[in-house]
Amino acid sequence: MRVDKKKELRPSILDRLLDDEPHIQVEADKNRHQHLRELRNSVKRDLENLLNTRYRMVEPPEEFTQLELSLLNYGLPDLATVNIADTEKKRNFTRHLEKILRDYEPRFKTVKVNHVDNKDNTDRTLRFRIDATLYADPAPEIVIFDSVLDPVSRTVNVEESKHG
Questions:
Q1: 133 exposed, middle or buried (CB, 10 Å; 0-12, 13-18, 19+)?
Q2: Structural domains in the chain?
Q3: What is the pTM of this model?
Q4: Are 129 and 161 spatial neighbours (Cβ–Cβ below 8 Å)?
Q5: How far, rounded to the nearest angstrom, does the alpha carbon of residue 151 sit from its chain's CA centroid?
Q6: Range scoring the smallest mean pLDDT among 5-9, 76-80, 99-103
Q7: Could you read off the pLDDT of 131-147 as tens digits, one per residue?
Q8: CB-CB contact of 73 with 53 (8 Å)
Q9: Residue 76 near residue 54 (C-beta atoms within 8 A)
């Protein structure tokens, strides 16, 4: 059976330029499952990078409207300035996360971010779940990432959900 090159899953340009195994001179052919696993891993890596990047603090002048979706706004605001003390503020923060993911993760066809309650009332981390659909041929691929924002270190950890 012949593989249509237009339908073949290909890693992003960044993933093709990065070489995790430089000692291997010839790449082995990969099946769809292997390509999907690599795609999921690269999305996870890029999500962690996006959510652990802080954007600039000063608003650009209003006449520079195109800067709204530029790299100047890539990432999250300084988390020291973000109030997530109550349920409504957590909901607002997750809506903001959704917007950031829609703006800066083009591999997502759809994305939804939901706050996840902590089982321990003394746990001050913010837990959220990212439910997304990745563009993939021949059919979109559903991914779920369980994420934790640590308010002390101000870092976000992203893991692919084991509970689909």
A1: middle
A2: 30-160 (3.10.450.40)
A3: 0.80
A4: yes
A5: 19
A6: 5-9
A7: 999 988 778 999 999 99
A8: no
A9: yes
